[in-house]
């Protein structure tokens, strides 16, 4: 009986240790998100966020390596925290971009959000982060294939926002996003992707809708863990407009050439006459 009591006490201590670890991980992740929202293009801030998120990730993975030692609820929480740490890491690569866009950071963000979209395809934040990273790569590298993928994922994120697939006002959710702020940012980035592809029509309505949402909620904070800050967005906008102008010019030249008959055809008709 004494041995059974000792084993029971040890089991309770293990449970207390797991729950304490979970609380510490939640605190670290919230601290990382606060840093993302409160700072701009600060390298020291980014390093602090990465350190916090990687610590949460490693602790979560380590605890999940021994699932039998935890109860089912704790395993679910640990798994969610490990995934949330990855979401935060992917967002940090975009939030801390400056006007001088670091393409390597954008590529890292794309890889992280791609993996997360496989795990949680109906998460609006993840789709928005993936679409935004693809937008930046497409605009800065002038790669239409990235931009077309960006349009797809941003449209999906917008649709998920409209369906209410956003962590809002949920005490248990680490990521609590304002659906209005999300919708406005997603529509804005979607408009930029279309502009870069040379679309002169759909971006107008998208930007008008985005502006209307922002005016309605002008008194509410609009920080999003997956979106760039103002200076980086300006650089992306400029590049998108430039790429779109090039695309429009190419189309116009192609139309002009198609209207001019080939000389060989004209001479051929004269010879046969």
Structural summary, described in words:
With 273 residues, the protein is mainly alpha-helical. It has ten helices and no strands. Helix 1 runs antiparallel to helix 2 and helix 5 packs parallel to helix 7. The protein is elongated, with a radius of gyration of 25 Å. The relative contact order is 0.09.
Number of strand elements:
0
Series of secondary-structure elements, N-terminal to C-terminal: HHHHHHHHHH
Q: Alpha-carbon distance between the termini?
A: 115 Å
**Percentage of β-strand residues:** under 5%
Instruction: Tell me the major beta sheet.
Output: none
Helix and strand content put the structural class at mainly alpha
Low-pLDDT runs of 5+ residues are 2-7
How much helicity do the residues have? over 70%
From the spread of the alpha carbons, the general shape counts as elongated
What's the short version?
By secondary structure, the protein is mainly alpha-helical.
Topology at a glance:
Elements: H1 2-38, H2 43-64, H3 72-95, H4 103-119, H5 124-141, H6 144-162, H7 179-196, H8 202-216, H9 230-259, H10 263-272
Short descriptors:
mainly alpha, single chain, 10 helices, 273 residues, disordered N terminus
